[in-house]
Amino acid sequence: MEEETILDAISPEEFQARFPGLYGSSNGVRWEMRQNRTALIEAGAIVLLAGRWKVIPKPYLRCVTAKAKAAAQARLKAAA
Q: Which of 56, 40, 70, 42 is nearest to 2 (CA)?
C-alpha cells in the first residue's frame, strides 16, 4: 500500500465530510489541530500549504488513533 503524501492533502472541512462520525462537532478537526498541532505535524498528518492548514488523512487517523488508545489505557490504569 502506498503512503499518502502532500499531494493527498485536503482541507479540514473536506476531512470532516469524509469522516463525519469521528468528532461530535463540525469543528472537531480544527479543535484537534489546535490542541495537538505539534504531534500532528511531527506525524506528517497536517501541513501548511500556501498559508492554509491541510490534513493528510492516513497519518492523521493513525496519530489520532494512537492518542485515543493512550487515553483509554491511562483510564484503565487509573480505574485499577
A: 56
